[in-house]
Amino acid sequence: MTDFDYDVVFIGSGHAAFHGAFKLLKAGKKVALIEESKLGGTCPNYGCDAKLLLDGPFEVIQDSQNYQGFGLDTAPQLNWEDLMAYKHEWIDRLPIMMKELIPKVGIDVYEGHGKLLDAHRIDTGDKKITADNIVLATGAHDSVLPVTGKEYIHDSKDFLSIPHLPESIVFIGAGLISLEFASMVMKTGAKIEVIEFSDRALAQYDQKYVDKVVARLEAEGVNFHFNEAVNGVQKNDNGYVVTTESGLEFATGYVFGATGRQANTQGLGLDEVGIAYTKNGISVDDHLRTSLKNVYVSGDVIDKQIPKLTPTATFESNYIASQILGEDDQPINYPAVPYVAYTLPRIAQIGVTPEQTQAASDKYEVKVLPYGQGFDTRHDTDAEMTVIFEKETQKVAGAVIYGGQAASLINILTFVVDKGLTNDDLEQMIFGFPDVTYSALTMLSPNGFMG
Ligand SMILES: Cc1cc2nc3c(=O)[nH]c(=O)nc-3n(C[C@H](O)[C@H](O)[C@H](O)COP(=O)(O)OP(=O)(O)OC[C@H]3O[C@@H](n4cnc5c(N)ncnc54)[C@H](O)[C@@H]3O)c2cc1C
Ligand SMILES: NC(=O)c1ccc[n+]([C@@H]2O[C@H](COP(=O)([O-])OP(=O)(O)OC[C@H]3O[C@@H](n4cnc5c(N)ncnc54)[C@H](O)[C@@H]3O)[C@@H](O)[C@H]2O)c1
């Protein structure tokens, strides 16, 4: 570095930024982060981590319900206020810790709104700085439904800090955020309506298992309304009334909207410096560069087909750091990406989907494995896997898992799919026993009890 204040400046401080920043720092580069809100971004503060902390006790309730009549007769009682205090105790300290740690290790932090002035100059709010390379890692935000009364619709950030749980909630959208939160709240006996614009929930997931999650939620009392478009929210003395274009009306105590997330492209100076973007995010080439070759894009703000998740943001951040360090000059090559819906029960999938095999039945063999029938699944009797084998090689090409332990199992299946292991390879290994992972892996083997 000669003429610039920094070798690399990241706008944003989420997973799309800090992994790469640490890698660059370790390699001797001078690095800065610009953050206008909480350090660490969405995932720890308002996303995955905060959600999982709140979800834990609900998972325990679900597990205990599975044992009813089989040794556990009383379900645990939830205390939301205590749970929320526990969440705050964990989550609120994370940005504080990062604020102490990051400058201490040698990365400068600018607290302000980052805006590109040209290919090398950035306005941080109160200071202008220069960088040889810039990484745009500004993430995304929950979209706001453009209807009358939109100010009464809460988003995921609000919900993740809600001090008291309402007795009734209308969820607008039946995507990941809504169904994950509805799965939890349902366990408190709240009255829940889910209004979905399209004819299905969780469109990215295998519909066989989505139908099972929807049926389970319906059995617990959630009312789903598909093919309905919300056109307004009115406030009255008792709460709110949500109306749809077809004339349905729902009285409720709380309105929650999760109708997709939008990339944070506004106010970044993109138009001024000539960087192209769409409504899905900033346009990049196969090296995650914009039309300005020293300006990269990482994480949720990219216009991409790959899922917008924490692990994909992390992968991109590390990839960009390798590009800048000259360790790698190849186009980005994503490995198989697992998707996990933290609904109750969970759905997780990796690789080739059952739907994709329909057009290639000569290439793939699909096996449905009811692993929940085993003794080691905490009486989660419905749990099931659909596993896709490549006929010619017998490699495991994909899997969908439905059940309480799907989120852990999918990481093992990710390893199997990504490394191209065959069921014979698995038979050459020894796994810890007894455990649900053992049974699931044994089932993949041709000589296993279900293989
Ligand atoms: C409720 C919820 C649950 C989720 N659950 C999961 C999950 O279970 N698993 C999973 O993998 N993913 C989950 N996600 C998605 C995950 O949080 C994101 O994919 C991930 O945070 C993306 O990281 P990022 O760094 O690209 O963006 P972010 O984490 O959004 O970080 C971007 C940062 O940039 C800052 N910023 C924006 N513009 C500027 C600017 N101009 N100047 C300075 N700073 C700026 C923002 O304040 C923010 O801190 C969830 C998301 C939500 C909302
Ligand atoms: N487990 C995870 O990995 C996880 C969890 C939560 C969030 N996330 C992140 O957040 C994103 C999901 O956010 P989301 O749940 O808001 O989006 P989504 O795209 O999953 O779901 C939005 C839903 O809202 C519906 N919708 C859109 N407009 C509507 C309208 N006017 N009326 C009624 N329904 C309408 C859509 O048809 C869709 O089903 C993910 O793509 C991911 O980036 C990931």
TrEMBL record:
Belongs to the class-I pyridine nucleotide-disulfide oxidoreductase family. Residues 6-314 form the FAD/NAD(P)-binding domain. Gene3D superfamilies: 3.30.390.30, FAD/NAD(P)-binding domain. One of its GO terms (molecular function) is flavin adenine dinucleotide binding. One of its GO terms (biological process) is 2-oxoglutarate metabolic process. It comes from the Bacteria. FAD binds at K51, G114, D300. InterPro entries: Class-I_Pyr_Nuc-Dis_Oxidored, FAD/NAD-bd_sf, FAD/NAD-binding_dom, FAD/NAD-linked_Rdtase_dimer_sf, Pyr_nuc-diS_OxRdtase, Pyr_nucl-diS_OxRdtase_dimer. Binds 1 FAD per subunit. Residues 337-436 form the Pyridine nucleotide-disulphide oxidoreductase dimerisation domain. This is Glutathione reductase (NADPH). Keywords: FAD, Flavoprotein, NAD, Nucleotide-binding. Its cofactor is FAD. NAD(+) binds at G173, A174, G175, L176, I177, S178, L179, E180, E196, G260. Disulfide bonds join C43-C48. SUPFAM superfamilies: FAD/NAD(P)-binding domain, FAD/NAD-linked reductases, dimerisation (C-terminal) domain. The keyword Zinc-finger does not apply.
